[in-house]
Amino acid sequence: MANTTTDDSRKENNQDLTLERSNASFNINEITEIIDGGVDKTKFRKEMEKLLFDDPLFKDFYKTFFKTRSELYEESIARGVKLFSLRQKYKWTDEQFEVIEDLVNHLFGMSLHFTMFIPSLERLATETQKAKWLPLATNFKILGTYAQTEMGHGTYLQGLETTATYDPVTEEFILNTPHKSSMKWWPGSLGKSSTHALVQAVLIINGKNYGMHPFMLQLRSLDNHMPLPGIEVGDIGPKMTVNYNDNGFLLLKNVRIPRQHMLMKHAQVSSDGKYTSSGPNKAIYATMVLVRVKMTKWVHDALRKAITTAVRYSAVRHQSKMDDSGPEPQILDYQTQQYKLFPVLADTYALFFMSRNLRRQYNRMMEDIRNKGSYKMLAEIHSISCGLKGLSSKIGIDGASICRTACGGHGYLMVAGISEVLGLLHSVVTAEGEYTVVCLQTARYLMKQIAKVSVGEVVTESCEYLNVDPQSFSCPLQTPADCFNLTFLCDIFRNRANSLIRSVASRLQIAIESGTPQHIAMNNNLQSLVRVAEAHSETIMVLDFTAAVTSLRTSPETIKVLTSLCQLHALHTIVKHAGDFMETESVGLEQIKWIREQELKLLEIIRPNAVALVDAFDLHDDSLGSLLGVYDGNVYERLYESTKYNPMNQNVVHPSYHKYLKPLMSGEMISKL
Ligand SMILES: CC/C=C\C/C=C\C/C=C\C/C=C\CCC(=O)SCCNC(=O)CCNC(=O)[C@H](O)C(C)(C)COP(=O)(O)OP(=O)(O)OC[C@H]1O[C@@H](n2cnc3c(N)ncnc32)[C@H](O)[C@@H]1OP(=O)(O)O
Ligand SMILES: Cc1cc2nc3c(=O)[nH]c(=O)nc-3n(C[C@H](O)[C@H](O)[C@H](O)COP(=O)(O)OP(=O)(O)OC[C@H]3O[C@@H](n4cnc5c(N)ncnc54)[C@H](O)[C@@H]3O)c2cc1C
């Protein structure tokens, strides 16, 4: 059935893709609208695609791969400025701007201004401070970043060394980065762009350390962009990816700022140096929770680009023979190719439904905070978002790596677009809380919840399955067909997480009761704690996907195809962690055999709809950023065309021939030695 993407410049479609599309059993527009969030939102996205991709600044993403770092930075600033101006002109909401961010692959300068700087002001500043700074920030009179991580510490925030020492005589804070390890290192858009930074620093009053607090710091002159006195700032250098971004360093030497520049919503310092606080002490970590929630959606956005590329390419690529007398098959027809790609496709959909639910929960928490001043949900949302940010980034990296290798040699080209996606995903696994560290935050919460169960206290919704005694569980899979029963699969996931959590909790308790110091007992169980966080997060993903497909109000064909993906996501996750599921007696050996067989059946079921299922993401070619994944499937033509933009091909004979190769070949070089 017809794809809704229209691009007049498209040539005739590759015949394989045309056939694949005509074979689809469902209307792809139904899924597109679910993913966009409704018909109006699909319409908005398409209007934005037209607006952006008619502009050469945003077109032909793949050309960025031929640019130097400085060119990339400059272009990203031009893009940022254009987007910010359009945002102002059309009065885009935050939600609409998030759609734009995805369309342009986050490739624009100053992205932290809206991702962290303004949200930090909204969450950490008093009403008076907001009235002063928010209009400046939203009208781009100041451009800001979030400067927390230091050379010496990113994870352990209690170890931060940047100081803000209060001077009651002048009613100022004096900011210093006393050692090399204290310099801020990593903040996005800090190196060359930002005029201001939200600096997290240790508050010191009368020699007493009050821990990390947020301060508003002007970095550069608003007239000539020069750093202000006492401030040294620059770019930290080339990275694995996001090289358009000027991630920066910042050294501070006795930089004085007014007392009112401490963001004082949750903690206050009076003019005579009295410290007071209100709200939970982790409220100053609020922006990190928001970004972790957003990142789960970013991973979906990124992975759908990789899987769209790999599935479409696998439909147009023919290689080898299954049968000597037949034609070379599409590589998508090999069972091994399907086993690589379809679980990734299923994960991509799972990530969508999970991130949608997480965002809804986050929004509910924010409403509670705003309307009732209640932080009741904070600990649970922090725990869930940590685990899901970690898990999604892992799924993203694993999935995009599979997509890259599934595209063979061409997948290794930058213009295939998958390496770029993979690089972005590598930033997500580390930024905003390193993988292990965030998983351990989730595990810490789970240990507290299971302790509550043991004393009969009520646990939060995400942990309700802990109320069941695993001893009472018996595997519900009685026949191979039961492996498709989502209710059974959900129970299996719940039991595996429940058993693992209880078993680590009991090991910790025994160790501590037998005299092992708590920190040693914890360290001896860290790996198991990460494992329970993963099990809990995987359970949430399966439950969210199941809840979504069982409550869809759409055609039976669409429900059927999404249900198959949900089944595959669950079954493949069980196979990946078969050891865990068997160890916890959530399934037996016989069931694992059935599950493997049923996984293969699902590959056959999904195969006719594979291309339609990636088309349903409805990615514009300029957003996809891949010459292998183009909608029309004319891959080889595009690859050849791309060589014309390659600076290496601008001279038929490269100058190095005259400088080096010719002297070698003529013997001139050797005779000079
Ligand atoms: C596909 C990709 C597309 C695009 C990509 C584009 C661009 C590149 C990508 C990314 C760039 C964007 C953004 C990145 C920006 C950053 O990285 S900003 C820096 C982020 N830094 C971190 O995340 C630091 C991680 N560390 C921490 O969060 C904390 O230090 C810690 C949680 C590990 C420990 O905190 P401490 O205060 O030291 O520990 P504690 O005293 O033991 O306290 C723990 C208790 O506090 C609770 N808690 C911790 N955090 C929070 C929170 N955020 N909210 C609520 N509660 C929190 C925790 O639960 C404990 O509570 P208890 O009741 O158990 O005591
Ligand atoms: C692309 C990118 C963009 C970024 N943007 C920003 C930004 O805008 N602003 C900003 O302030 N920061 C930013 N950061 C910094 C980022 O938040 C930190 O790098 C991240 O939080 C990880 O901290 P770290 O570098 O100190 O890692 P480390 O903590 O040094 O991690 C190294 C290893 O130590 C392990 N480890 C550390 N602590 C523990 C523990 N308690 N238990 C078990 N293992 C542990 C980790 O698991 C990891 O294996 C960015 C980073 C990147 C890569």
Describe, in plain words, how this protein is organized in 3D.
The chain is an alpha+beta fold and 673 residues long. Helix content is 54%, strand content 8%. The chain contains 23 helices and 11 strands. The strands form 3 sheets. Strands 1, 2, 3, 5, 6 and 9 form a 6-stranded mixed sheet that branches. The chain has a 3-stranded antiparallel sheet with strand order 4-8-7, with no helix packed on it. A hairpin with a 4-residue loop joins strand 2 and strand 3. Helix 3 packs across helix 5, helix 8 packs antiparallel against helix 9 and helix 8 packs parallel to helix 10. The longest helix is centred in the middle third of the chain and has 38 residues. It starts with 14 loop residues before the first helix and ends with a helix. The N terminus is likely disordered. Ligand LYQTPAFP binds next to helix 8, helix 10, helix 11 and helix 12. Belongs to the acyl-CoA oxidase family. Its cofactor is FAD. Pathway: Lipid metabolism; peroxisomal fatty acid beta-oxidation. It comes from Mytilus edulis. Pfam families: ACOX (PF01756), ACOX_C_alpha1 (PF22924), Acyl-CoA_ox_N (PF14749).
